[in-house]
Amino acid sequence: MKSYQIAVIPGDGTGPEVIREGLKVLSAVSRLEGFSLEFETYPYGGEHYLRTKEVLPNSALKEFQKKDVIYLGAIGHPEVKPGILERGILLKIRFDLDQYINLRPVKLYPGVWTPLKDKGPEEIDFVVVRENTEGLYVGKGRFKNKGTKKEIAIQESINSYKGVERCVRFAFAYTRKRNKEKKLTLCGKTNVLNYAHDLWQRVFNKVAKEYPDVTTDYAHVDATCMWMVKNPEWFDVVVTDNMFGDIITDLGAMIQGGMGIAAGGNLNPQGVSMFEPIGGSAPKYTGKNVINPLAAISAGQMMLEYLGETKAANRIENAIQFITQNKLKSLAAGKMGYSTTEVGDLVVKHLDGVR
Ligand code: IPM
Ligand code: MN
Fold this sequence. Notes:
The structure is a single chain. By secondary structure, the chain is of the alpha/beta class. The protein is built from 11 helices and 12 strands. The longest helix has 19 residues, at about 15-35. The two termini are about 30 Å apart. It binds 3-isopropylmalic acid and manganese (II) ion (MN). The site of 3-isopropylmalic acid has 5 residues, from helix 4.
């Protein structure tokens, strides 16, 4: 029987609650499809840091490297200064394991409320390919005259040919494989960012020649935000840099129904990838059994899809669609009409496709 080794980092806040439901669903679907999942849980996160002063040891990264994938809940703790856990855990894993793609599907499921009037599942179904290891996230820069009125803070965006090219290549290949409209939009800011996005545009144009079957398009990031609200149906796959990708994928999450449903993958196609709900640790809902676990369950679905367990992934997606359409009153925490654990149970119950 095929077996996969999975590192699980439940993390902070509601992370453990949603991961528990994700694991419940993953275990159930693996039994139905006849493969086995071996989970190893790691304690990293805010609580662990406050208790031990340890953020993420290199030994853990070495262990992750031996796994097939990583399944992450949420990182972030109200008593820990912003940046420590983000940089020390989440970004460290992304960077050190060279997870150079952040894949973010923006898909409105039937029955889910969207703030966009007159738009439905037909119109809201695209994927953002975000570069995940470079740009402003590299953390390069400096202060000059720090603490004085002459202070200048410089934050550099690092864009390497290699980094841009592998991201753009992934996006073209993904667009072809997705086979929806076969349209790839580059989202940038070529009218202002005269170095960084000059490189992006050149690389994009060059790789495009190898994909004559893929239609290309370009939109500045501000216009991208506008079109995502006004005409989301114009997008099939969008490729963009790390910072812009961070911003537009939160907008994407909102139009697909919010943080309760949005999931993402941090991919290293040659290495170990990590899947996560993108919603954060939601401290105020912690321990109440009210948070929506569907984003974590969707992250699990993406993980199985990535591992090649397509049938299992489809079972999960069908179950999610069934319950968003027929069961849940809302996707918002505390308003679903069901508890966190009940939503997990509902997904499990509908994995068999029997309605
Ligand atoms: C995300 C998150 C992270 C990011 C934060 C937590 C560092 O917002 O995954 O989009 O900015 O990448
Ligand atoms: Mn973000």
